[in-house]
What we know:
alpha+beta, five-stranded antiparallel β-sheet, 18 helices
Amino acid sequence: MERHGVDHEEISATFEKALSAGFIQATDYVEIWQTYLDYLRRRVDFKQDSSKELEELRATFARALEYLEQEVEERFHENGDPSCVVMQNWARIEARLCNNMQKARELWDSIMTKGNAKYANMWLEYYNLERAHGDTQHCRKALHRAVQCTSDYPEHVCDVLLTMERTEGTLEDWDMAVQKTETRLARVNEQRLKAAEKEASLAQQEEEKAEQRKKIRAEKRALKKTRGADKAGKRKVEDKEEDEWGGEEGQAKQPPKRRRVEDRVLPEADGEAGKQGKWAAGDVAPPAKQKEKAAVARRDLLKVAHDSSKDSVTVFVSNLPYSLEEPAARLKPLFEECGEVVEVRPVFSNRGDFRGYCYVEFPDEAAALQALRLDRTSVDGRPMFVSPCVDKSKHPDFKVFRYSTALEKHKLFISGLPFSCTKEELLDICKAHGTVKDLRLVTNRAGKPKGLAYVEYENESQASQAVMKMDGMTIRENTIKVAISNPPQRKVPEKPEAGKAPRGPMVPRQIYGARGKGRTQLALLPRALQRPSTTTPQAENGPAPRPAATAAPEAPKMSNADFAKLLLRK
């Protein structure tokens, strides 16, 4: 806006709007304040001692510091400017452009009191400012304070002090600097030695604990082995006793094996005990046997293969509880709200147990599309997944995920929620910061909450205001985190292309043998009987070499008698 010559009032109004709109991070506030302060500095004519623009710049610096300390720290629990960059810029402007070194020293005192006195680079920055625009006395005071307060790199500060006194100080100043630096470095070395000893002792304690754990584990293993050996010895003794006292009498004392219910025949006993048995003929079978019979009946049913031609009018229902009894009867009334149901076909295992998914067929596609709205409906405490019926073998890249995986600036992602937090309770909290269009609690397959939620607002400004107000809020002793919804992209493993030949030239196996090319391969055919290859090698680049015009005549085949004549001639 400054480049295009926009009025100062309009730029200030735009800055106020941006400030009230809110940002996601505390550092964003520091950045926008710095940009606006740079713009105000460029408007000031520093040749004049005082002007309206200079007073506005100083007032804006004070307002920025107050805003960062109060508003930003209250929202984000941090200042956003721990190194006091805004205050450092103000001190530089006062020292270099306004020649007001007193104000610059006051600002640097405030910077050091905000927890920056232990850093050597902060003291050296102040020292360089004093060297450029101050005097030697204040430089010496700053370095003496730095020697006493610095904890990260005290050696560097001590070297700077000694260098300054060597070039500009008197003998008394040099002696005092040497004494202070030696005392400080001795104290620092002592503290570092104690810290190293403490770390060594902690490491030794950890090693001793690890050794103790190893000993305890070894003792437990030895104890288990001894117990196992004792049990094995007892079993051998019992077996020997049984062998000694075995025979017909011992076999008669053994309890008879259980017989199946189907093979059991009720005896005809005298009296009421025989007539009134526990499960006499004509009685109803026990509940366990009833379940077994139902499972056998389901197992013996004719298994109908899925008809892929009806996928457009069929939905696939999954994540159902395995303990669901009569799945077809339970699910049919639920899906009849979407239209007429032709068939509910649950899938059972070979043992007759329900496998947790089924197919629901409708007469037309409109009813099937309407049934997809029943996705995530609770059935016996579990969310039922309803998706289109698609053959994954024909469409391997088909995925059912109805939520966006890209950046949505009007939607919030909330984590750290207590598992007992309900949708209504979270909705009441979110309504206070804008109009909520949708709220979704994330659950696992069993329907139990995961402590996560997505909240959709009408626009981006409401979402950003909700982030600033709700991030870090405590709900039932749980501190929640709130951010703009921006799910990370999932890494999809690269699949090798089907039918693609492996890299590298293919070598025929008959050339090198079954194990490839070996180090030593000897030809077993005598050289006298070897014939030159008639195949012409193919050139790698350019046309293939032309064959010879006249081919040599082939040698006549020799019989065993010819071989004998050759040998006799020798």
